[in-house]
Each structure stands twice: as C-alpha cells, then as structure tokens.
Amino acid sequence: MTVKLIRMWSGEDVIADIVEESTDSIIITDPIVAVPSPQQGNIAFAPWSPLLQKDKIEITKKYVVYIGDPQGEIIEQYNTMFGKISTPTKKLIV
Asked: Which residues of the chain have pLDDT under 50?
C-alpha cells in the first residue's frame, strides 16, 4: 500500500492509495479530500468522487501538480478509515 497526497491542478489535495503508475497516468483506490470541519481549526475527510462507482480510478498525470508523502497522522487516519493495518508513527515506551 502506497498512501500519497496528490495535488491536482484544480487545487484539490487528494489522499489515496496509488496502486499503479505509468509515464502518463496513475491508478488510485479509496481517494479522499480534506474539507473544513465544523470545529474551528480542524479538518475532516470526504470521498473525492462520491458518485463514481469504481474500485480503481485512473488519473492522467497532466492534471497532477505533484505527488508527495502526507503527514504520519494523515496516513494513520486513512488506514483507520479503510480498514487497513495501521502502525503508529510514534514509539511509546510502556
């Protein structure tokens, strides 16, 4: 699993699992976007394309500004949302 932040030309920051990448496109699953939360200063997540009924979405790279690693807390939240195994980024001594 490769959870990445994908910045689109439209200004959206999409968090998704990149399952395949070629020179012209990327294929993603479970895309979400950050949206303002009702609580001041917080963000929430919503499906990127909620009306689309596909397991995998192919995105042409000409619409992508950059692809990078999201913050560890974002990856943990993403893994929790989609039922994938999550390993904590912070090490605790008990």
From this structure: none
